[in-house]
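Entries read sequence, tokenised fold; example below:

***
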Amino acid sequence: MATELTPEVRDWLLDGDPAIRWQVHRDLLRSPADVVDAERARVATEGWGARLLALQGDDGQWAGGAYFPDDATAATEPGQPWTSTAHVLELLRRFGLPPEAAREALAGVAENCRWEHDGQRFFDGEVEPCINGMTLAVGAYFDQDVAGIAARLVAEQLADGGWNCAVETGSTRSSFHTTIAVLEGLLEFERRTGDTGVREARLRGQDYLLQRRLLRKASTGELIDPDFTTLAFPPRWYFDVLRALDHLRDAGTFLDEHCREAVDAVAAQQGDDGRWLLGHAHPGRVPFELEPVGAPSRWNTLRALRVLAWWEGR
């Protein structure tokens, strides 16, 4: 398991987008705060972040909709379209766009964007916990009032400790996909607001994943889904082991033996050149391509290196 950042990989990462560079400085190089902040500020004015901000419509939305674009052809396309407001804001959060640089953009969303489900205001959330988890993360990150979503998600936690969007159709068992989205939202909310009232639910949700080793059924020990070890970015609403491990690292979780198999699955995908490939892109229309599938991925390399360093220093 090679976690050392070689000069070649370091230079390659730093030759990427500002969204990559500032996180490399913070998480891998431990650069001074002024260096990190200067790189992060560029997300709003250069590269991917600036391109996404420029796509916001005059109505304050992206692609004219909250979760789906206002486009009659979207339902006939392969995959799910990822061009609408919720998905763009989630990507900007992962890019680390400084919240103060997004105030005007977020004001337009709060004023005009409504959920397709029943016309709810965007930052009031809707009914599916997978969507509400993402909305909670986005809203908390960008300093919006999303306390109502947080309270709803805590109340909707299932007996096994996780969450599932299929509860309304009768499911009583949690979903890895839904649970990771809710956990990311609860952590962002707790961190940004200082409200520790969600912590118990968040830690129970973590335990739901850890008891299953981030991969396996609790009942039989069988692998839940081979795709869980395929590394994608952006993750969209899907679970994979790198997304989960990076969340646990971000939450300051002690990575114990429950994580070993998942960590090994990530480490095994490192190439001889010290980099990780983009293993998959979830199908659907995108604003623009970040990285090509099958090529070395700065996103996966950054995230894998910081997870492996966290594992070795646990």
